[in-house]
Amino acid sequence: MILIVWFLDIKDIEIKSMLPQFLLLSVDVSKSFLSTLAGVFLTVATFTFTTILTVMTTYSSSFTPRVVQRFIDKPHVLSLIGIFIGGFFYSVLSLFIMQYVSSGQKVFAGTLGVVYAITSIIVFMLFVQQVIRDIKVVNLIQDIYDEALILVGIEAEQRKNSQRFEEEKIGKTIGIYANKTGYFYDVDFEGIMKQIGDISCELVIHKKIGEYISKGVYIADLNLTESELPDELKEEKGEFLNKISDSFLINKTKNMSQDYHYEITTLIEIALRAISPGINDPNTAINAIGKISNLLGQLFSTENKFIVLKSTENAKIIYTSYSTQEELYLSFYQLIFYGKEDPSVGYSILEGLYLIYMIADDSAKDSIVEFFNYAYDVIYQSMKTEFDKKHIKDIRDDFFENKDEESDAYAVREEGAQSF
C-alpha cells in the first residue's frame, strides 16, 4: 500500500489525475485523518490482543488447554493483530511521504487509509462474531467433532483397505530405534522406500502417531523375508538403520492435522473438566461423550488394526494402529473413573458404548461387548441408591436384549454420523 501511495502521489502524478476527483483528499485532511488513524490502529491492536488473551484464559479455565492451541491456530486470530499493526505502519509512513507533497495538491493516501480503516472494522466485527460463536461450548464441541470425523473417516477407510494384509514369512527381524525425543509426528514414506530399495521386507511400525518417544526407544521392526541383509549393506548396517530411523519424524508438538486421537482427547478433556467439582456441568460431558461414541463407532468399520501405508512389489510399510479394545480403554477409562458416581454420566457412557456397538462392524463387536461389561460393573457398583442401580441395569438389559438383532450396519453408521 505504501508503494501505491508513493507511486501515485510522488512518482507519477499524471496517473492520479485520471482517477475520479471524489477519491482524492486534500493534503491537510489526509494528514489529519492519518494522524488520528495511527493512534486508533495502535489502540485497537492493543485491545484486540487483550481480547485474545481473555478468550485464551476462558478456554483454558473452562474447557482444556488444547482448545487454546486450536484458537491460536485459527487464521482469523493472530492475523487480526497483524492487520491493525499494518494499518499503524501505513499511517505513519504515509505521513512521511506526504511531507514532499505541496499543500495545494490532492492525494490518494488519505483515501486508501479510509478504505483500510473500513476493511479493518469489518474484519474486526467478523472476529468478534466468530469469538462469540466459538466460546459457546456446544459450538466448540461440534467443531472439534466435525474435524475429528474427517480424520476418523480416513483412518477407517485405510483399515478397511488393509484387511487382507498378512505378515510375510519372517527370515530375520531387525529392531528400529528412535534417534530423537519428542512426539511421533509422521512417517517419511518416500525416504524409507529410498533406503529399502529392492530389499524384500516389511517395515512394521509399532509406535502410534501422537505417542511421546524417548531417544533409543524401540519403534519398529524391519522384517526381512531373507535371512540376512544384502551383502552391500552388511558393512554399513548401522548407517542404513539410522537413515530409516531418521524417516520417523519426531516433533516437539503433536500432529493436530492428521492425528484423530488429538481431537478425541480434546473431547475427553472437555468432558472431564465439565464433570469436575469446580464446574459441575454434566450435560456438557454427556454431549462430549455422545460425540466420542459416534466417532469410535465410525472408526470400528473393521477389527483390523494394521494399515498398509506404502507398498511396492518387494516391500511394505505397515502401521500398527490401536485395536478396538485399546481405543475403547483409552477413550473411556478416565471418564469411567471420574464419572462413575454420577448417574447421568455413567448412564451416558453405557449408552455411548451401546451406540458404538450398533454402528461398528460385526468383527469388532465382541471387543465392544467385553468392554461394555467392564464399564457396567464399575459404574453399577459405584451407584449409591437402588433407584440409580435400577436405571443403570435397565440399559444393560436393553443392550443384551437387542445386541443380536439383525441390522444394516452401513445404514446405522450413516444415521449416526448425521444425528450428531
Describe this structure in words.
The protein has 3 domains: 2-135; 139-162 and 258-303 and 323-419; 172-251, Pyrimidine nucleoside phosphorylase-like, C-terminal domain (Aldehyde Oxidoreductase, domain 3, Alpha-Beta Complex), CATH 3.90.1170. The chain has helices at 2-11, 13-17, 27-62, 65-73, 75-98, 109-134, 137-161, 189-196, 231-234, 237-246, 260-274, 282-299, 324-339, 343-359, 365-382, 386-402, 409-419, and strands at 25-26, 106-107, 172-177, 182-187, 201-205, 212-213, 218-224, 248-251, 306-311, 315-320. Helix 3 (27-62) runs parallel beside helix 6, helix 7 runs parallel beside helix 12 (282-299) and helix 13 (324-339) runs antiparallel to helix 14 (343-359). The chain has a 5-stranded mixed beta sheet. The protein has a 3-stranded antiparallel beta sheet with strand order 6-4-8. A two-stranded antiparallel sheet has the order 1-2. It has 17 helices and 10 strands. It is an alpha+beta fold and 420 residues long.
